[in-house]
Amino acid sequence: FMLVIGRRPTREETGSLLAFLKQQIVNFQADPESAKELMEGSTLADSPPESAAWIVLSSVLLNLDETITRE
After folding, report:
1. What is the pLDDT of residues 32-52, one digit of tens each?
2. Which of 11, 18, 41, 62 has the fewest C-beta atoms under 10 angstroms from its C-beta?
3. In the prediction, which pLDDT does 56 show?
């Protein structure tokens, strides 16, 4: 978070991001083929559902308005 946004997350942001991550893990566990598809070409050795969830969370952080528009 700090590398992307440049500040520490608030407690609310931390809670929201952790809830989002957990939900993504559940979603990818329910659809492992989707996780494998997202992980195609990746060098990550972790479980595909968890790694895929982290990729999605990273994408969310990189696409935040706060990330794109530095003021």
Report:
1. 999 988 888 877 766 889 999
2. 41
3. 95
Query: What's the Rg (C-alpha) of the chain?
Result: 13
* Burial of 21 (C-beta count, 10 Å sphere; 0-12/13-18/19+): middle
Residue 35's SS3 state is: helix
Q: Which residue has the tokens 């982290």?
A: 54
Sequence-distant (6+) residues with CB within 8 A of 61 are: 1, 4, 5, 17, 67
Residues 9 and 17: beta-carbon distance below 8 Å: yes
H-type helices in 1-71, by residue range?
2-5, 11-30, 32-39, 48-62, 65-68
* 61 token code pair: 């952080």
